[in-house]
Amino acid sequence: MRVGVPAEVKADEYRVALTPAGANELVRAGHEVVIESGAGAGAGMPDEAFLAVGARTGTAGDAWAADLVLKVKEPQPGEFAMLRRDQVLFTYLHLAAAPDVARALVAAGTTAIAYETVRDRAGRLPLLAPMSEIAGRLAVQAGARHLEAPAGGRGVLLGGVAGVSPGSVVVLGGGVAGINAAMVAAGMQAHVAVLDVNLTRLRELELALAGRVTLLYSTDLAVREYVARADLVVGAVLLPGARAPRLVTREILRTMRPGSVIVDIAVDQGGCVETSRPTTHSDPVFTEDGVIHYCVANMPGAVPVTATQGLVNATLPYVLALAGRGVERALADDPGLAAGLNVRGGEVVEPAVAGALA
Predict the structure, then answer these.
(1) Does the model's pTM come out above 0.85?
(2) Which domains does the chain have, with CATH numbers?
C-alpha cells in the first residue's frame, strides 16, 4: 500500500505523523512511504532520515495522493480539496468541535479514522493517551507561568515557600490528562484537588497519588466551591467523540479572583469552560472577567520531538494493520480500531460524533 504523510499546516503545529523508525517498519513490510519534503523538520526529523530507511520525499500533493494518509491534526480548509473517496485518512479529528471538517469529509466521501476514538480491549483510548499525558503535564507548566505577575497573573508561586501557603490547583477530570496535571502540580508542592464523577477512577487515583491530592466527587456545588478559590484550574474533562460538558459557566468564572488562570485542555472538544475559545502557541491566552484563559488546541505541538515519538509509538501498530490488511480487514479484525471510524461513504458513522453534530 502507498502511505502518505503530509506536513502539518495548522498554526504552530510542528509534529509529524510518522518517524523514520515508523517509516522503516512500513518499508520493511513492503509498503511505499511518501513524506512531504520538510514534514519532519520541526520534530527534529530531516528528510535525509526518512530517505535513509527507504521512504521517498515529495510534494504535499504526492503525500495526499496515497491510499492511506497519516496526519496529526484535522485537515485544514486549504487541504479540503485533497480529500478523496478512495482514500483512508488516519489522524486526530475532534469532529464534535469541527463541523466544517466533518462536512468536508462527508462531501468528499473519505474514510476517516480518528485517533481519539480508537479503543483497546479494555475500552481505553490508546492513541489519545500519550498526547493527554503531555497536555496534562504542560497544562501546569503553562498555568504556573501565566500566574506570574509579569504575565498578568496573580503573582502566586504554586509551591509557596516556608511560612507561605502554596497555590491552589483544581483539576476537573481524573482521566489521563487530569492525573498527569495533578502529578505535576503535586510535584510542585501546590495544594491539588481532582474532581471526577467516576468513583472507581477516584479510588484508582487514591492509590496512585497516595494521599498527595484531594479527591472529590464532582457536583455542580463542588465545582463552584473549589473553582472560586483556585489559583489555577485545569479543565481535563473528556467524553470520547462528544463535545466536552461545560462545567465552568461564566457565572462560576466571575467568582474567581482576578489574575487566576484557567487551562482548558478540553478546548479541542469544545472546551469545558463556557468562556473558552481556541488559541495558538503564538497567541496562547486571553482574559475574560479578569481570569486568564490558556486554550491552545494543540498543546503537545509545543514539544514536537517528544510528542511525535510518543504519538507514533502508539499509532504504528494500527498503521501497519491498515496498510498490511487493508481497511476492510483491519476494521473487521479489530473492533477497537473500528471504533475509530468516524466518517465513511459520505456519512458520519460514529454515534457520539453524529449526536454532537446533529
Answers:
(1) yes
(2) 2-118+304-357 (3.40.50.720), 129-302 (3.40.50.720)
Q: How many residues does the chain have?
A: 358
Question: Do residues 21 and 91 make contact, with C-beta atoms less than 8 angstroms apart?
Answer: no
CA separation for the pair 294, 21 (Å, rounded): 34
Question: What nine digits make up the cell of 91?
Answer: 489522524
Concerning whether 268 is annotated as a catalytic residue, the answer is yes
Q: 3 and 70 in contact (C-beta within 8 Å)?
A: yes
Residue 191 bears catalytic tag: no
Side-chain-facing half-sphere of 56: CA atoms under 13 Å? 8
Measure Cα distances from 224 to 27, 185, 247, 250, 288 in Å: 54, 20, 9, 11, 17
Identify the active-site residue in 94, 146, 191, 293: 94
Q: Which residues contact 64 (CB under 8 A, 6 or more apart)?
A: 4, 6, 79, 82, 87
Give pLDDT tens digits for 102-155: 999 999 999 999 999 999 999 999 999 999 999 999 999 999 999 999 999 999
